[in-house]
Amino acid sequence: MLQGCDASLLLDSSGGIISEKGSNPNRNSARGFEVIDAIKAALERECPSTVSCADILTLAARDSVVLTGGPSWEVPLGRRDSRDASISGSNNNIPAPNNTFQTILTKFKLQGLDLVDLVALSGGHTIGNARCTSFRQRLYNQSGNGEADSSLDEYYGDFLRTKCPKSGGDQNLFFLDYGTPYKFDNSYFKNLLVNKGLLSSDQVLFTANQESAQLVNLYAERNDIFFLQFAKSMVKMGNISPFTNSRGEIRQNCRRINT
Predict the structure, then answer these.
(1) What are the helix and strand counts (H, E) for the chain?
(2) Do 205 and 247 reside in the same domain of the chain?
(3) What residues make up the domain containing 165?
(4) Which of 90, 128, 192, 206 could form an SS bridge with 23, CB 3.0 to 4.6 Å?
(5) 62 and 176 in one domain?
(6) Closest to 50 measured CA to CA, from 20, 79, 73, 93
(7) Residue whose C-alpha is closest to residue 74's, from 87, 62, 82, 65
């Protein structure tokens, strides 16, 4: 999403391209590329050079939400794929787990997304995992004073420390939503209400901004409203600066540009 919904993330390093997969936010975090490869290969056999990797990613995101119990939405199609990647953009523009609320909101606004989109799309953390290294600071030294984040539930913090020590275990995985980790629902927001958000960037949605906190409360109470807004925000995000017409290309292999 750095330059738009253009599948730049899928490119492997080659020639003058340095893959975004190796950036700090994506390294050992973004996964499932082999699933996209299989979908693309099947489509190329039936309809060569017709369906872009960017459209595949967008459809796969929608279908993964539906398959885990979440909402569905109509996906606008016709995107084309980028011919380059930006590891510097990935490192600098993707919100980091320990960013302040204002920094996260600013990064969303730079992409044309607003506070409502920020809170709703963060609800996608009802599915997935995070590495120990992405939240260790919360457990041991959040403010540089050698103490845990005061907004983290004490007993939840004790549990996390059992598998996320001060050193080592960087790649140990933890559910972003410990309550219903395999179901797309509003449990993520309920966790925030009791200070059990895994990442600092999750918990600040409830602790750092009044308007954001009101939305967290609303989505925690009304799963239907969360589903409706999540679908709207996903369509909005999928329409960020798409490559269309003659811009970009339709890759034959999602991992490399056409020759």
Answers:
(1) 11, 2
(2) no
(3) 113-237
(4) 90
(5) no
(6) 79
(7) 62
Kindly state whether residues 217 and 155 are assigned to the same domain: yes
Question: Same domain, yes or no, for 117 and 194?
Answer: yes
Bind-site residues for substrate: 95
The rounded distance, in Å, linking the Cα atoms of 187 and 183 is 9
pLDDT per residue over 125-175, tens digit each?
A: 999 999 999 999 999 998 888 999 999 999 999 999 999 999 999 999 999
| Structural domains in the chain (count) | 2
CA atoms within 13 A on the CB side of 37: 9
Binding-site residues for heme b, in ranges, read: 125
Q: What is the pTM of this model?
A: 0.91
Q: Let me know whether 6 and 120 are in one domain.
A: no
Residues of each annotated binding site for Ca(2+): 4, 6, 8, 20, 126, 177, 180, 185
Residue 191, domain CATH: 1.10.420.10
